[in-house]
Amino acid sequence: MTIEGKAEVEIAERHSHTSAGPKGRSHTTYHTEYYRAKEIYISSVIPILGEARLPKGRTVFPFNYVLSASNLPCTFQATHGSVKYSIFAHMKGSLFQFDIRETIYFVVGPFLDLSRVRLDDLRQTTFAEESPVVGCCSCFKAPESIRLQLIVPKRYFIPGEFIRFHMTIENKCPHKLLSGVMQFVQLVRCFAQGTMRVSENVYAQIAGPEVQPGCTQNWQVDNLRIPVIQPVGIPPTDLGGCNIIKVGYGLRVLGIFCVSK
User: What does the DSSP 8-state code read for residue 66?
Assistant: First the structure.
């Protein structure tokens, strides 16, 4: 029996090559190149039966295996990579029987070591200010057409907790901001052979207020909840020890303007 835990990343890139064909016509060919990376966290072989023969009927072989208490990434699945843990059993068949092979996957939950987190970091307030340029074809395009100020009382959160924030929205453009949306976003970065791919998941969002042209609106929220997803839940930042898959979280603001000519 083999117990294995590993992280794997596979990134596919499609390339094209155009060359001159007969009679001056161009000819394009395509090929896909794969970039792969792997990390092994557990690889243990546990002998169960040896060379003995099983008697007829049902036989049970109890066993136990102690997982490492730290630096073991939790189970995770993303678009370009995954962290998986499995138990593989192999039993040779008799003279006229096939070998029996069975793989069972089990879940390793997230590990949080609070001794590595400073209390000052837990209480640290996050402040962000942005003045994006808003534009849409020929509708409008004005520098600093909207100004955002975001204050989050702390930086560390756990699944099931509510994110509290205060945002000031200053609408300097001549169009009404119909609605703003605050999203709790997970960003996943997968690395393999010098190549990186980024994917994202939106786990929660909440709608904001309208802002009239030339007006300022304060948006106070205390009910943006980080969901609890079973059986693993939302994995911790950076997965707790994986070097080829990095996970981060953030707040993203989206706005919809009413444009009239």
Answer: P
